[in-house]
């Protein structure tokens, strides 16, 4: 399941974060980071998924 979340985090970073933590502060932060730049959104999403195993 974690591998699927990481793949989704690479394709759609906010979706990967949503599946891991729901509609919390990390989700909204990831939305902003993804809008500002796709790569920061991916890095944050993978970090959230790896941290919250």
From TrEMBL:
Similarity field: Belongs to the UPF0057 (PMP3) family.
Protein's recorded name: YqaE/Pmp3 family membrane protein
Localization, UniProt: Membrane
PANTHER family to which the protein is assigned, alphabetical: HYDROPHOBIC PROTEIN RCI2 LOW TEMPERATURE AND SALT RESPONSIVE PROTEIN LTI6 -RELATED, UPF0057 MEMBRANE PROTEIN ZK632.10-RELATED
Cellular-component GO terms for this entry: membrane
Keywords: Membrane, Transmembrane, Transmembrane helix
Domain of life (superkingdom): Bacteria
This protein's record includes keyword Repeat: no
Membrane-crossing residue ranges in chain numbering: 6-24, 31-50
Keyword Transit peptide included in the entry's annotation: no
InterPro entries in the cross-refs: PMP3
């Amino acid at each position: 399941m974690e591998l699927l979340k990481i793949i989704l985090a690479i394709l759609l970073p906010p979706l990967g974060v949503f599946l891991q933590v729901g509609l919390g502060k990390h989700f909204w932060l990831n939305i902003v980071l993804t809008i500002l730049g796709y790569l920061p959104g991916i890095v944050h999403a993978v970090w959230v998924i790896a941290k919250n195993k």
